Amino acid sequence: MDRPVGDRDYVVIGGTREQLLRRYPHAKPVGKKIAVYYVHGDEYTLSTAKTIEEDLETRDLTINALAMDEDGRIIAHPSALEHLRAKLLYPVADDNFFVDPARVYRAARFAACLPDFSVHPHLLAVMRRVAAKGACRHLPAERVGKELMKSLAGSEPARFVTICRQGGALKGWFEELEQAAQVPAGPVPYHDETLLEHLCQVMDRLAGDSVRVWMGLCHDLGKIMTPQDVRPAHHGHDRAGVDIVRKLGKRLRLPSGLVRAGMAASRWHMTLARYDILRPGTRVDLLTSVGSRELLGNLCALVVADGGIDMTDRVLHDFRIIHNIHLPATWQGRGPRSGEQLRILRAQALVQHS
Questions:
Q1: Three-state secondary structure call for residue 179
Q2: pLDDT tens digits, the chain, 354 residues: what are they?
Q3: DSSP 145-158
Q4: Which of 105, 126, 134, 248 has the fewest CB atoms within 10 Å distance of its CB?
Q5: Which 3 state secondary structure label does DSSP give 137?
Q6: Which keywords accompany this UniProt record (predicted)?
C-alpha cells in the first residue's frame, strides 16, 4: 500500500500467558476480554484460535485479515488480497461486529484514514444493524474516543462522521452531530448546506492537523441550540457551543487539552473573524483570553477554513506586542485595578503599532 510501517502486531497461536511472560518478563497487559500485551511498543495477542486461519476469521475487515509468519509467508483471508487491490472495506463476518461493536467506529476510522477505499454497502448495513440493536451505546467511552482521535489524523477526517451517520452510529455517542444534520448551517447566500455538511467541509479543509480538525468539528455546534423559528440565523451560537463541546469531550473521555481547544473554537471563531474591526481593548481581551500562541494560530487556521478570512499575521503580531507590555512596579499589587491598567497599556500599544 506504499504506507510506512506504524507498528507491529503479533498473534500468538497455541501459547500461554506464562510462556509469553517467561520470554518477555516486562510485557505489559492491556487487554481485558482478550489477552493483549505490549512488548517494546509492539502488540502481542494470545489468540484462542487453534490456527492462524481460524484467527483471521475473527477480524473486522477483510483487508485486516492478513498475517505474515516468521518466514515471510503471507496468510490471508480468501477475500483479503482481492479487496486490498479493489480498495474496498468489507466485513469478514457480520457477527464479528456484534461480538465487538467498537468495530463500527473502527470501520469509520479506516474510511477516514484510507479515503481512496470505498465502503461496501454491506458493511454499512452491518453497522446499521449493530447500532439499531443498541450495542454501541454500551462501549467504554475511551474506545469510541480513541477511534475518533485516530480519525482526526486521517487524510479525509470528515469521512468518520459521514460513515458513522450512514451506519446509524452517531446516535448516543455523537448525538450533537446527528442533530446537526437537521439544522441549516446558516442563511443564504452564506450557506446552502446543513450544519453537519458544513462541519465536515471545514474538517477536511483542516486535514493534516488533528487538533485543528477537532476544532473544525466543534466550532459551530452551538447552532443546534437555535430555536427553529429563528433559523437559519444563529445569533449567539459561539457562546452556546462552549458547554456542548465540553459535554461531548467529557462523554468521550477526550484529553483535556483537546476539549479546551474545541471550546475555544466555539467561543472565539466569530470574534476572531471580525478582528480587523474590533476595538483595541476588545482585541486585548481576545488575545489574553486565548492565552496560548499555538492555540491562537490554530484558531486563525480555523477562521480561514470556515470563511476564508486570514488575519493570522496581524493577530500573531498583536499577540507578540501585548506580551511585551508589562505592568510597572507602581501599579502592581492593586487587585483588579492592576489588571485594568495592564489592559489599558496593552490597548495603547496596539494603537501605537497599528
A1: helix
A2: 556 656 678 888 888 888 989 988 988 887 666 688 888 888 888 888 899 999 999 999 999 999 988 888 999 999 999 999 999 999 999 999 999 999 999 999 999 999 999 999 999 999 999 999 999 999 999 999 999 999 999 999 999 999 999 999 999 999 999 999 999 987 777 778 999 999 999 999 999 999 999 999 999 999 999 888 888 888 899 999 999 999 999 999 999 999 999 999 999 999 999 999 999 999 999 999 998 999 999 999 999 999 999 999 999 999 999 999 998 888 888 888 888 999 999 999 999 987
A3: HHHHHHHHTSSSTH
A4: 134
A5: helix
A6: ATP-binding, Magnesium, Metal-binding, Nucleotide-binding, Nucleotidyltransferase, RNA repair, RNA-binding, Transferase, tRNA processing
Q: Which three cell numbers stand for residue 308?
A: 476564508
C-alpha cell at 279: 476595538
Q: Which residue in 88, 146, 138, 93 sits closest to 117, CA to CA? A: 88
Written as one letter, the residue type at 110 is F
What is the DSSP secondary-structure string of 269-316? Answer: HHHHHTGGGS-HHHHHHHHHHH--HHHHHHHHHHHHHHHS---HHHHH
Burial class of 234 by CB neighbour count within 10 A (0 to 12, 13 to 18, 19+) = buried
Query: pTM above 0.85?
Result: yes
Q: Is 5 exposed, middle or buried (0-12, 13-18, 19+ CB in 10 A)?
A: exposed
- Report which residue type is found at 117: F
> Are β-strands 74-76 and 36-39 bridged in parallel, bridged antiparallel, or unpaired?
unpaired
Contact present, 196 and 207 (Cβ < 8 Å):
no
CA–CA distances in Å: residue 31 to residues 34, 46, 105, 240? 5, 10, 18, 39
State how far the alpha carbon of 329 is from the alpha carbons of 302, 332, 342, 344, in Å: 38, 5, 11, 15
Name the E strands within the chain.
Answer: 9-13, 28-29, 36-39, 42-47, 66-68, 74-76, 88-89, 118-119
